[in-house]
Amino acid sequence: MKKLHYILLITVAILVSNCDTNDDGFYNNVFVDVPNLVAMDAHSNVYTVGEKLYISADFSRYLNDGALLDIFQTTGATQFAFSYVIEKQINATEWEGVSVSDSQLDIVKGDAQNGSYVYGICEYNSIDSTYEYRVGFPLSATGTYRLSFGYNSDSYNSVELRSLSPATRLVLNINSLISGLNSGGYYTFTVN
Question: Maximum CA pair distance of the chain?
Fold first, then answer.
């Protein structure tokens, strides 16, 4: 009987030691770093009520992160998603999220949904083999605002794009540095 207990204990120990705790391998996640795929359109940091803050992306299916990578062939994804949040300063230390209806977003390319943050979707253009996004967020009230790409991430100076891949394909996560953000990870602007 004692032998059975020892055999069972050894068997359980072997099984537990062989467990794979790497969820990325299980879910077929791959990570790459490619800078400057998403940007705020050029504008001074002072806007007028009624203007829109445009966020744009237009990147090739062929990316270079040290080696040429065909992200369309690798992932099978016709869309890449990312998120950002726009907040308005309500006093010296507090900010609140700004939300508009989806119909108020000026969707030029790609798609977007707005709630407590903007969920942006870059859509694949098969004519020029690029993923495209250009959406304007309406600025309807005066005040001090800030934009952050860190809503669904732990990064403060980059945006994280995730391929919306078919179930059997790799999921590509692209960390893309963004210029124009301050050391806290915000683009701060004023609306007059």
Answer: 82
